[in-house]
C-alpha cells in the first residue's frame, strides 16, 4: 500500500486494531488546529506499539480519536472486524468496552468519593458481572496489579500514592477483559523508581491477558523498553515506523535521530545532529495552526532541500519492517 502512508500496515496478519488515514482537527478562534494528519497504524494480538514524539505532536489526540473520544474528523478505526467509525451510539459504547484507556494523571482519573473496591469494577457494574463473584474478582484484580487487597480495598484515592492510584487504574482497565489497552503517558507523572514498576506491570498484564497495547510517551527510553515497534510523530504526521530493537542504530529519519541525540549518552554523541546546522535551538517551532508545506519537519531539519518544501514525503519501506517519510534518508545516515 503506498501513497497515503499506509505501507506499514501488515496485510495477511490477524490484527486487533487498524487505524487508516486518521485525521483530527479542532476549530479554535485562530483557525483550525491540524492535530493529526493521515495517521496509519496497526496492532497484532499481544503487540505493543509505542507512539513517540514531543509534546504537542498529536500523540494524545490520536489515542483519544482511536477511542472515538471524540470521533476523528475523518479516517477509519477497526477494532477486530468492527469499524468503530460507522457505529451508532449504543453499539459504540459496547465496542468501547473492548478498549481501555490508562491516563497520565491517575489521581484525577479516579472518583475521589469511591473506594478502591468500587473503582476497579465500575465497568462491570455497567455491563454485568456474568458468573463472577464481586469480592473475589476485586481481590483478583488488585492482586494482579501488585496491590494487597486487605490493605487498599476500603481506601479512597487520596489515601494512596500516585503509583498505587495508577495500579488501581490499570486494574480497572483490565476488569472488562479488553482487547486493546491505550496508555497515554501512564508513567510521566510518577517518580522514576515507580515508573519501572508500572512498566513491568503493564508488560505482565499484556502477557497474562493477551492484550495489544498502544503506548504513548515522549520519553525515548520508556518507549523503547516497552514497545515491539515504534511510530515516531512530528506535528501530526508519521515520520518513521521501525522495530524498537536496535532503535538507536537503525533510525533513518532526521527527527528520530534528533530525538535519540537528545538523550544524554556517549553512544549518541558520535552521531548527534549539530544544532548549529538545524534543530530546535535554531528556529521557532512551527504551529499546528499553520503547518509548513511539504515535510513538516523541514523548518528544523539540517537536511532540508527545495524538494522538502515542495512535496510531502510518503512513508517508504527502506528496510524490512522500517518505513520512513523522508526525501533524504541516506543523507541522515551520512550525518
Order of helices and strands: EEEHEEHEHHHHHEHEHEEHHHHEEH
Strand order of the largest sheet: 6-7-8-3-9-10-12-11
Number of strands: 12
Mean pLDDT: 88
CATH-defined superfamily: P-loop containing nucleotide triphosphate hydrolases
Gyration radius, rounded: 21 Å
Structural commentary:
The model is unreliable at 1-5 and 271-282 (pLDDT under 50). The protein is of the alpha/beta class. The strands form 2 sheets. An 8-stranded mixed beta sheet has the order 6-7-8-3-9-10-12-11, with helices on both faces. A 4-stranded antiparallel beta sheet has the order 2-1-4-5. A hairpin with a 2-residue loop joins β4 (74-79) and β5. The chain has a single domain, classed as P-loop containing nucleotide triphosphate hydrolases (Rossmann fold). It has 14 helices and 12 strands.
Brief overview:
With 335 residues, this protein is an alpha/beta fold. Helices cover 32% and strands 22% of the residues.
Secondary structure layout plus pairing:
Layout lengths: L16 E12 L2 E13 L4 E5 L6 H8 L7 E6 L2 E2 L5 H8 L2 E4 L13 H4 L2 H6 L6 H11 L4 H4 L9 H13 L5 E5 L7 H18 L2 E6 L2 H7 L2 E6 L2 E7 L3 H4 L3 H8 L4 H4 L36 H5 L5 E4 L2 E3 L4 H6 L1
Amino acid at each position: 500500500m503506498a501513497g497515503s502512508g499506509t505501507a506499514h500496515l501488515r496485510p495477511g496478519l490477524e490484527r486487533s486494531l487498524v487505524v487508516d488515514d486518521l485525521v483530527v482537527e479542532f476549530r479554535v478562534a485562530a483557525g483550525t488546529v491540524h492535530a493529526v494528519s493521515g495517521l496509519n497504524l496497526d496492532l497484532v494480538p499481544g503487540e505493543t506499539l509505542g507512539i513517540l514524539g514531543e509534546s504537542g505532536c498529536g500523540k494524545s489526540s490520536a489515542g483519544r480519536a482511536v477511542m472515538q473520544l471524540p470521533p476523528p474528523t475523518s479516517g477509519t478505526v477497526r477494532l477486530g472486524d468492527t469499524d468503530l467509525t460507522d457505529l451508532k451510539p449504543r453499539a459504540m459504547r459496547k465496542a468501547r468496552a473492548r478498549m481501555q484507556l490508562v491516563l497520565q494523571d491517575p489521581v484525577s482519573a479516579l472518583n475521589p468519593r469511591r473506594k478502591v473496591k468500587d473503582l476497579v469494577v465500575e465497568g462491570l457494574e455497567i455491563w454485568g458481572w456474568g458468573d463472577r463473584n464481586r469480592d473475589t474478582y476485586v481481590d483478583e484484580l488488585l492482586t494482579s496489579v501488585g496491590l494487597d487487597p486487605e490493605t487498599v480495598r476500603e481506601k479512597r484515592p487520596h489515601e494512596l500514592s500516585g503509583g498505587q492510584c495508577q495500579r488501581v487504574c490499570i486494574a480497572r482497565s483490565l476488569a472488562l477483559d479488553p482487547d486493546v489497552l491505550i496508555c497515554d503517558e501512564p508513567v510521566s507523572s510518577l517518580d522514576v523508581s515507580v515508573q519501572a514498576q508500572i512498566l513491568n506491570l503493564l508488560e505482565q498484564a499484556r502477557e497474562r491477558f493477551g492484550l495489544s497495547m498502544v503506548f504513548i510517551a515522549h520519553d525515548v527510553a520508556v518507549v523503547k523498553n516497552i514497545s515491539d515497534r515504534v511510530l515516531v510523530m512530528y506535528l501530526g504526521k508519521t515520520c518513521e515506523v521501525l522495530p524498537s530493537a536496535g532503535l538507536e542504530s537503525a533510525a533513518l529519519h532526521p527527527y528520530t535521530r534528533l530525538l535519540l541525540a537528545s538523550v544524554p549518552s556517549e553512544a549518541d554523541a558520535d552521531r548527534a545532529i549539530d544544532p548549529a546546522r538545524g534543530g530546535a535551538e535554531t528556529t521557532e517551532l512551527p504551529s499546528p495552526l499553520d503547518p509548513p508545506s511539504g515535510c513538516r519537519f523541514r523548518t528544523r531539519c539540517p537536511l532540508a532541500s527545495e524538494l522538502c518544501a515542495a512535496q510531502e514525503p510518503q512513508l517508504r519501506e527502506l528496510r524490512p519492517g522500517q518505513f520512513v517519510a523522508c526525501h533524504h534518508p541516506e543523507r541522515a545516515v551520512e550525518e
